[in-house]
Amino acid sequence: MLTYLEIHLYFTLPPCLLLFLTHRPLLHKRDTFRFLLLCTIVVAATIPWDSYLIRSGVWGYPEGVVLATLFSIPVEEIAFFVIQTYLTTQLYALLHKPIFHPSHLPLSPQRGWVGAALLLLLSLLGGTAVHHGHRLTYLGLILLWASPVLALLWYLSGPYALRLPLLPALGPVLIPTAYLWAVDTYALREGIWAIGEGTKLGWEVWRGLEVEEALFFLISNVLLTMGCIAFSHAFALADVLSLSRPADVWSVPPNPLAQPLHTIRVLYRALTLPPDGYPTRTISHLRTAARTLQKHSKSFHLASSVFGERCRLLLLSYYAFCRVTDDLVDEAGCTGEAAGNVRLIERFLALFYPGSAGLEQGELQNDTQEDKNTGRMNGHGHIYTNGPAHSEEDDLMLASHDSGYGDCWPSPTHTSRPKTTQTRETVDTFIGSLPASVQPAFSLFRLLAPLLPPEPVYDLLRGYAFDALAFSPSGQGREVVSSFPDVLAEKEKMPLLQKLEKPLPAIQTEADLILYCRRVAGSVGVACTHLMFAASGLPQPVPQELQQKASDMGVALQLVNVARDLVDDAKLERSYVPSSWAATPSDTTPSGILANPQRAVDTFRPRLLKLAFAYYQRSAPALEQLPEESRLGARGAVACYMAMGVLMRSWSFKRKGRLAMGVKLVVVLLVLYAPRWGRGFRL
């Protein structure tokens, strides 16, 4: 006959080890804090109850199967409390990684009154059963022990639990329960422990498994899972409140173990939040942002599961703003509307950055050709000359002033920009004037603005301005619509707009392409780096060298996008292929690409990908400088994108489909479980 210790060695510890190895790359400090706190509560609450069971003869064990006892409880039984808690909480954490919990918060505080009342009724029935004793004793003690705690948890987080997907909600209950039923059946059949006669109903689920034992494992896993859900509920609500009401000290420490009492106090406040302080609007906007991410970026949606919860919240909010503002420009009906939307976005940004130099027309004309050839561009696309030395290969990032790209800003002057809060438009009024479909994203940016410097945001806007003026929206032709008088009135101040009336490609040199990529993607990389540092709570500013590498990585990802969408962009009368890459410049125009799409793909895609991987190789090592809880997610997101480049270089590539998604999933798994894979030299 096996001993209780051998039951652990052979049956309960191996799945713990498997879960540890599986979850280790994804483990965050919040997961550890949740396990330790729940484990403390479980051990403290169960020892008196279990001690009473043994002393009352409800269950027992023969001589020689346990090492020692504490309060009449075998030490292996106390270890089992910890082991079961670990199994359930770690499985819960693993299954809930894909879930963005703030998007599942109810729009108003809800309490599980009905469920709590029914559970309290069960506890009364349990007390009655214990009072009558005999065959109802064990059943009554289980109900009396578990029902009040479960009633409290359901009252606080029951409605939230009902909003979660079924597998993550029920998996941590059913999977450990089924496994522990099997282990318990073996132990009961072998006589390693036994249920006392006269204290049980005598009913069996199957031979050897008493119905009370089955109920105990089921209800104990329900308790653990509901405890985990309550933690997720509280953390999600605290994260939303820290974003929407930062002055109220809702922020949970990046490492809850360092400040456990403060963390518990914040979580308690979140779970007991009164209705008048509930962030209904922000939750609604986050739901919209989550749907936007899932619809438009399968790669980032997959990789976002790896980020820490607060970092994921900030990045998803910024992605929603970038996605919506990009659509405002790309899906405009004409050039005038696109340019007007760019100016609309600029006016919105001015509400948050009133002291910024902004995007004054002709701003980049002050950078001379000599500056561009001797200086180095930082992560914001601006010139600085005091940076570290670089090789000739780095000169790809320098812009060509002759292209006119530096002049592509449709706003005449900034003399009308409000300089004080008294004269500026209020943010609420501005957002309220926008179409309802874009209001959530703009509202979320309002909350992010204190965490972001103006430079990367305005550089993104410069990229939008280029798209608005250089390419016609939705393939409608290059003509500027006369019904947009502001654009026509400033025509003389916009050299690029004048150039577009000539049959010249908008991007003439490789440097033009790199500068464009820096603005539409490198700027996003820089902004995301700031948000990662903000989520981590690190007090120091983002190092300039890391911002440069973030910009380089953004360039790499955008070049992969350009290579992937080469023909699709041409169908929309867009081409980002530099005219200098072809003997005949017309070959890089949309019509030239569409004249022979396969030739264009065979000619330009390899060069675009070579350039993309060059930028990836030199920026990938910098991912290790990111905050710990953002590092793996960033590597996963980048690897997903670059995997598309690997596919395009390797065999017939289809933009969508099971193959592409399967490859991305494999890449994320490699990033997680083969740590040295994907760090530049592996791709």
Annotation keywords:
two-stranded antiparallel sheet; Squ/phyt_synthse; mainly alpha; intramolecular lyase activity; transmembrane; 683 residues; two-stranded antiparallel ribbon; Farnesyl Diphosphate Synthase; elongated; 2 domains
Textual characterization of the structure:
It is found in: Membrane. This protein folds into two domains: 4-225, no CATH class; 288-353 and 426-474 and 494-673, Farnesyl Diphosphate Synthase, CATH 1.10.600.10. Helices cover 61% and strands 2% of the residues. The longest helix has 34 residues, at 211-244. It is built from 25 helices and eight strands. The strands form four sheets. The protein has a two-stranded antiparallel ribbon. A hairpin with a 2-residue loop joins β2 (69-70) and β3. α11 runs antiparallel to α12 and α11 packs parallel to α16 (454-470). It is elongated, with a radius of gyration of 30 Å. It is mainly alpha-helical and 683 residues long. The protein has helices at residues 4-23, 29-55, 75-95, 113-132, 137-161, 166-190, 211-244, 260-271, 280-296, 298-303, 309-330, 335-350, 369-374, 427-432, 439-448, 454-470, 485-489, 495-499, 510-536, 544-564, 566-571, 590-595, 597-619, 628-650, 658-673, and strands at residues 59-60, 69-70, 73-74, 194-195, 204-206, 209-210, 376-377, 383-384.
- Number of extended strands: 8
Q: Number of helical runs? A: 25
Poorly predicted regions are 359-424, 475-504
Question: What's the arrangement of strands in the largest beta sheet?
Answer: 1-4
Strand content: under 5%
Global geometry: elongated
The biggest beta sheet, please? 2 strands, antiparallel
In CATH terms, what is the architecture of the largest domain?
Orthogonal Bundle
| CATH fold topology of the largest domain | Farnesyl Diphosphate Synthase
CA(first)-CA(last) distance: 54 Å
Alpha-carbon Rg, integer: 30 Å
CATH H level, superfamily name of the largest domain: Farnesyl Diphosphate Synthase
CATH class of the largest domain: Mainly Alpha
Average per-residue pLDDT, rounded, comes to: 83
Pfam families: SQS_PSY
Protein name: Bifunctional lycopene cyclase/phytoene synthase
Catalytic activity: gamma-carotene = all-trans-beta-carotene; all-trans-lycopene = gamma-carotene; 2 (2E,6E,10E)-geranylgeranyl diphosphate = 15-cis-phytoene + 2 diphosphate
Transmembrane segments: 6-23, 35-54, 66-87, 112-130, 136-157, 164-182, 214-238
